[in-house]
Amino acid sequence: MTTPLVDQTLGQLASQIPGATRLFRDHRLDFCCGGDQSLRHAASVRGLDAEQLAERLAEISRQPSQDTDWNEQPTAALIAHILTRYHARHRQQLEELTRLADRVEQVHGANPACPRGLGDFLTVLGEELDNHMQKEEQVLFPMLEQGYGAMADGPISVMRYEHDQHGDALERLLELSHGLQLPEHACNTWRALYRGLEELHDDLMEHIHLENNILFLRQ
């Protein structure tokens, strides 16, 4: 008997239904670090109607999708995608976003809406994320590509733990930026900063999802 969509986990739904991650992002449902929650539970926590979300997911699943189904791709291809689409991109994002955050605080620090401390936070996040990605690039990913997945339980556990920390960091990012709500008459630098933060937030969630809910489950 097929499990109803509302009783499947966010991670399962994100993996099985191309396009589901967009719906989850729109409703701030954590499908990466919180991917083991059922849709019913996650929706309840957010005050959302789980049945309506399930209906929307059913509609999405019936539509043709141009998204790559990474469940069907070999491990080497998935790892190559993670490296080029996310690892390289995160390094570029955090360097530029830190510069923008410092500039906004320097110019608008007296404004109550200013995300004070964001630049320092992004500096630390960048260092932690780079360290995390280096461990994947130098240790875990080569093990998986060479077929040593059975020996990778330890490194995978460490990566999952650090992913949870990154999820906490994303919550802190939203707190510091006041939910990415721009004040009236925000300057172009401030607008560019928040656009970039939203992209980083969504990219990092998708990145963690691909590893937690697809790559790591193959081992």
Entry summary:
With 219 residues, the chain is mostly helical. Helix content is 68%, strand content 0%.
Portion of residues within helices: 55-70%
The largest β sheet comes out as:
none
Quickly give the structural class: mainly alpha
Note the run of SSEs as H and E: HHHHHHHH
Rg over CA atoms, rounded to whole Å, is: 18 Å
Cα end-to-end separation: 26 Å
Average pLDDT metric: 92
Beta content comes to under 5%
Helix/strand layout:
Blueprint: H1 10-16, H2 20-26, H3 39-46, H4 50-62, H5 75-108, H6 118-145, H7 153-176, H8 188-215
Protein described:
The structure is a single chain. The protein has 219 residues and is mainly alpha-helical. The protein has 2 domains: 5-62, Orthogonal Bundle (SP0561-like); 72-218. Helix content is 68%, strand content 0%. The chain is built from 8 helices and no strands. The protein has helices at 10-16, 20-26, 39-46, 50-62, 75-108, 118-145, 153-176, 188-215. Helix 1 (10-16) crosses helix 8, helix 3 (39-46) packs across helix 4 and helix 6 (118-145) packs antiparallel against helix 7 (153-176). The mean pLDDT is 92.
Characteristic key phrases:
SP0561-like, 68% helix, mainly alpha, globular, 2 domains, 8 helices, 219 residues
